[in-house]
């Protein structure tokens, strides 16, 4: 699969009065054409900062983005993000009210994006906006153009934001917890819309959530983050059927309905809290909460280990590799 996005060793450093906070801290990942990469992890793991860094939206100071590679369709995002943002990469946030202008009619907001970014005339922009909303299954788009955001429910506003993000036909859409504020029925409708959109517009998607249930419905590949680090990167099938990292197992434990009874017995529930990132634990950041932690986990940060088609940052798999090597296999 060819990649639209390749990221190597991405770190965002915040220089704060209390010290330096790094989240994400040295993560690498890629997104293939029409692939949905789900990023999952507890609050504060660095999911949003990762997304904002791809959009060039990290406030500086205090933030500084560093990466060995941050390439989007052959362009260096560290240098050329201004030309790409809002056109070839767009983003949808959790709260559409913060992104929509409350005092402007919806139609005027959509038209403005196309006039400014795509050099369209107003009639062309109006026609295109209506076409995109129709493609996304938004009911009565002509009528909607003459209304204000407050006249619609949260779910409909989020649909409008998705239409707005799709106006310039982006190759990559980043959605940061876009369904978190919505009730479950509306949430599945919006997830369905994202799935359709991928096919309709041939767009790749980065979908950020703290909810593995949502990941199960939308992602092809999953990056699990913990305290600024990635701990596992695997296909959605492997994450659910053959999870590797004790943290992934712990997250799955909170989803009893999706897990066969037998496996549930050996899963761990995650005790404790995500550590403060100003002074993260030495070695593996998850070790203070991990029932399988070994001495090495408290001393040395785990490198990436390939296990089948998954990549996992955990010494449990390093031990296997080390033992195999010692046995001469
Ligand atoms: N502008 C900023 N200045 C200082 N620190 C920041 C800033 N933005 C984020 N951080 C810190 O970076 C870390 C990662 O935050 P981030 O918002 O990416 O987490 P998250 O995984 O998206 O969590 P949530 O699910 O709560 O949004 C947190 O410790 C946060 O306090």
From TrEMBL:
Residues 5-252 form the ABC transporter domain. GO terms for molecular function: ATP binding; ATP hydrolysis activity. Its main location: membrane. The keyword ATP-binding applies. This is Oligopeptide/dipeptide ABC transporter, ATP-binding protein. It is a peripheral membrane protein. It comes from Mesotoga prima MesG1.Ag.4.2. It holds the Pfam family ABC_tran. GO terms for cellular component: plasma membrane. One of its GO terms (biological process) is peptide transport. It is found in: Cell membrane. Belongs to the ABC transporter superfamily. Keywords: ATP-binding, Cell inner membrane, Cell membrane, Membrane, Nucleotide-binding, Translocase, Transport. The keyword Cell membrane applies. InterPro entries: AAA+_ATPase, ABC_Ni/Peptide_Import, ABC_transporter-like_ATP-bd, ABC_transporter-like_CS, Oligopep_ABC_C, P-loop_NTPase. PROSITE patterns: ABC_TRANSPORTER_1 (PS00211), ABC_TRANSPORTER_2 (PS50893). NCBIfam families: oligo_HPY.
């Amino acid at each position: 699969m060819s990649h639209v996005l390749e990221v190597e060793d991405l770190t965002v450093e915040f220089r704060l009065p209390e010290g330096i906070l790094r989240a994400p801290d040295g993560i690498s990942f890629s997104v293939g054409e029409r692939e949905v990469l789900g990023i999952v992890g507890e609050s504060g793991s660095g999911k949003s900062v990762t997304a904002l860094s791809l959009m060039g939206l990290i406030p500086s100071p205090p933030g500084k983005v560093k990466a060995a590679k941050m390439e989007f369709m052959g362009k260096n995002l560290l240098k050329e993000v201004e030309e790409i943002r809002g056109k070839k990469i767009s983003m949808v946030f959790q709260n559409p009210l913060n992104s929509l202008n409350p005092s402007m009619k919806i139609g005027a907001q959509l038209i403005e994006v196309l006039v400014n970014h795509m050099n369209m005339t107003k009639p062309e922009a109006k026609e295109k906006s209506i076409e995109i909303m129709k493609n996304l299954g938004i009911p009565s788009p002509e009528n909607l153009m003459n209304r204000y955001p407050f006249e619609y429910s949260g779910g409909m506003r989020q649909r409008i934001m998705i239409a707005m993000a799709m106006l310039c036909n982006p190759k990559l859409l980043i959605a940061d917890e876009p369904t978190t504020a919505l009730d479950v029925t509306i949430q599945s409708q919006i997830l369905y819309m994202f799935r359709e959109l991928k096919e309709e517009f041939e767009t790749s998607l980065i979908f950020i959530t703290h909810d593995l249930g949502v990941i199960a419905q939308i992602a092809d590949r999953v990056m699990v983050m913990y305290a600024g680090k990635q701990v596992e990167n695997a296909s959605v099938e492997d994450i659910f059927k053959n999870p590797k990292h004790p943290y992934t197992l712990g997250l799955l434990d909170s989803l009893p309905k999706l897990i066969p009874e037998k496996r549930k017995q050996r899963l761990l529930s995650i005790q404790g809290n995500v550590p403060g990132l100003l002074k993260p634990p030495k070695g593996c950041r998850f070790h203070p909460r991990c029932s399988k932690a070994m001495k090495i986990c408290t001393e040395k940060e785990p490198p990436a280990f390939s296990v089948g088609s998954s990549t996992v940052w955990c010494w449990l798999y390093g031990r296997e590799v080390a033992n195999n090597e010692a046995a001469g296999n």
